[in-house]
Amino acid sequence: GGLDRAVIYIDTESAFTAERLVEIAQHRFPNYFATEEKLIAMTNKVLVYQELTCDSVLKRIKSLEEEIISKNVKLIIVDSVASVVRKEFDTKRQGNLKERSNLLTKEASILKYLAEEFSIPVILTNQITTWLSDGLAVQADLLSPVDDLSLSEGSSRNGNWDSGYVTAALGNTWSHCVNTRLILQYLDSKTRQILVAKTPIAPLTSFLYIIENSGLVLQGKTTIK
């Protein structure tokens, strides 16, 4: 946790690793994290909860207010909001889409309240979907350069709308819930891009970055559209 404050990390994909967190800290701030005591103090401030069902995620979110106060939390991360929802809700079945939308709206409402009430950022990761020309949706891996997919909103795959296009998962309900949307995408095998696709406070902007032992490292110049 930065500034000697706590972080809540809700892990729905069993993807969190403390080893990677320590690696980033040691490489980004080698002088500060030169001792085991400093590393232990830092990791103790990161509160990780593994929630693998929709019910457990919602229950955890409902319990956050008390924990924010008691543990001086200054950042909430949900990674990812889409994972358990997409596993449990088959939107082709009657009633499932409405039920899923109600769940997402409820979660978003609570998290927005917490962000505003305590003036803390809430970060949620999503997944991506490739919509094919026949209306089928195929889940893609956000962390891998699968077929050089472009993740820019509304973009087509290989410039051909007939073959399909890539978009964020969870549909319109969720897209309207978020205040700021960042799209992470590959430009080549090493370089990636953060695209600020939606924000109420700044122009549309993009940043180039690479992933190193020290975590995310910005490259080159910022592009403002």
Describe this structure in words.
With 225 residues, the chain is an alpha/beta fold. The protein has two domains: 127 residues, Rossmann fold, CATH 3.40.50; 46 residues, no CATH class. 33% of the residues lie in helices and 32% in strands. The strands form three sheets. Strands 2-1-3-4 form a four-stranded parallel β-sheet. Strands 6-5-8-7 form a four-stranded antiparallel β-sheet, with no helix packed on it. Strands 9-10-11-12 form a four-stranded antiparallel β-sheet. α3 runs parallel beside α6. The longest helix has 23 residues. It is found in: Nucleus.
Detail the topology: elements first, then pairings.
Blueprint: E1 6-11, H1 18-28, H2 36-44, E2 46-50, H3 54-62, H4 64-71, E3 73-79, H5 81-88, H6 96-118, E4 122-124, E5 128-131, E6 137-140, E7 156-157, E8 160-168, H7 171-177, E9 181-186, E10 192-198, E11 205-212, E12 215-224
Parallel strand pairs: 1-2, 1-3, 3-4
Antiparallel strand pairs: 5-6, 5-8, 7-8, 9-10, 10-11, 11-12
Family: Belongs to the RecA family. RAD51 subfamily.
Subcellular location: Nucleus
GO biological process, one term: double-strand break repair via homologous recombination
In short:
Belongs to the RecA family. RAD51 subfamily. This protein is an alpha/beta fold and 225 residues long.
Q: Helical percent range? A: 25-40%
SSE pattern: EHHEHHEHHEEEEEHEEEE
Number of strands: 12
At the fourth level of CATH, the homologous superfamily of the largest domain is P-loop containing nucleotide triphosphate hydrolases
Using only C-alpha atoms, the radius of gyration works out to: 19 Å
By DSSP (H or I, 4+ residues per run), the number of helices equals 7
Residue fraction in strands = 25-35%
CATH architecture of the largest domain: 3-Layer(aba) Sandwich
Shape: globular
Q: Per CATH, what is the topology of the largest domain?
A: Rossmann fold
Query: Spans of 5+ residues with little confidence (pLDDT < 50)?
Result: 137-161
The CATH class label of the largest domain is Alpha Beta
Taking strands numbered 1, 2, ... along the chain, how are they ordered across the largest sheet?
2-1-3-4
Structural class estimated from helices and strands: alpha/beta
Largest sheet: 4 strands, parallel
Q: Report the span from N to C terminus.
A: 33 Å
Average pLDDT confidence is 85
The total tally of domains equals 2
